[in-house]
Design a protein that fits this description.
By secondary structure, the chain is an all-alpha fold. The chain contains eight helices and no strands. Helix 5 runs antiparallel to helix 6 and helix 6 runs parallel beside helix 8. The longest helix has about 55 residues.
């Protein structure tokens, strides 16, 4: 659209062409705005940003700011085409950065979930298993000193950590959805319990 305006096309014509070329929700919004503009014989700003405009229910400042710049281009004409091109490049950069940040966040959240359900319980179970086997032999100073008490607090800590990290990773990626947080926390609790007990039994049997 910016190139068309820069080449001397009217903003209204550029909007109509863009609406025809886009098949997604953006194209549908542009089509509604263009239709409203033609039917009511109003400007671009009024058609999109005015009362009952095509963007009246869209809270995004980025979208509304973009249309405001398009409306300004309608007043300024050809010189505003370069500004639209610059804005388009800027939005593409923002979308790329947003996608990269989301990818990094997903990776961090997967690591948190894995730590709570697998790695943490695995290490904790092995530690308790080793401590239990040592307490029954002569490996500790004073021989026969029991470390059986260690299993309960470590187990509770592992289960608490599993629920906490599952809730945190879900909240960061999906928001505070109670049903989803509860489901994933319950699943993490079961996985952590199985991993902890399995690690304890295996290491305790080998030690």
């Amino acid at each position: 659209m910016g190139r068309r305006v820069a080449n001397g096309r009217a903003v209204e014509t550029a909007l109509a062409r863009a609406a025809d070329e886009l098949d997604d929700e953006t194209g549908a919004v542009l089509e509604r705005g263009v239709t409203r503009q033609r039917q009511l014989q109003v400007g671009v700003r009024e058609a999109f940003l005015g009362r009952h405009g095509a963007l009246a229910a869209v809270p995004s400042r980025r979208v509304r700011g973009s249309i405001a710049l398009v409306a300004l281009a309608g007043d300024e004409g050809r010189p505003a085409g370069d500004a639209l091109l610059g804005m388009s490049d800027h939005l593409e950069d923002l979308q790329r950065i947003e996608a990269e940040a989301r990818h990094s966040m997903d990776h961090v959240c997967r690591t948190l979930a894995s730590t709570g359900t697998v790695f943490g319980p695995l290490v904790a179970g092995a530690t308790v298993g080793l401590a239990d086997s040592m307490s029954g032999g002569d490996l500790l100073p004073g021989g026969g000193q029991s470390l059986a008490w260690l299993g309960a607090p470590v187990g509770l800590y592992v289960l608490f950590l599993a629920v906490l990290l599952a809730a945190l990773s879900t909240g960061l990626t999906r928001g505070i959805d109670r049903s989803l947080v509860g489901y994933r926390a319950g699943r993490a609790l079961v996985a952590a319990t199985v991993t902890f007990l399995g690690s304890y039994l295996v290491v305790g049997g080998l030690a």
